[in-house]
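WARN retry 2 of 3 for item q-0093 after timeout on previous attempt; input resubmitted unchanged.
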Amino acid sequence: MTVKSVETVLASKGRDVATAWPWSTIDEASKLLVGPPTIGALVVLNEARQVAGMLTERDLVRGQTLHGSRLGEVTVESLMAHRVPTCGPTDELSSVMATMTDWRFRHLPVVRGGELVGLISIGDVVRALLADARLEVAVLRDVVISRT
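OK item q-0093 returned
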């Protein structure tokens, strides 16, 4: 099995990342989440355009319980996760999956030199690893068939 990196995934899926500011309202951020395209997370950037946090659909559900009908007026900063793990383009997908599992995050910002260069989801990782596993099975099947 080949070792795939985050860069491999970004090269095929693209590098576009939906972002929000900490001072944006939840109403503004929600409009970005519902798209198009529909997405599950926004990377929150500070004034220096560095990762300051992340806002997910899960955060909105918690916010609804806390703020009720006023949720749309609340700032992104008040609901976002402030401590967000990141990964780099050269990180192996197995390492990224372990980070996602340990932190219970389904999305990781991809950062190079402090700059946001992409976003990878657990679905992206599983898709890439599954494709790799299917290829390995096909190669092994061909080897077995050729030796019989």
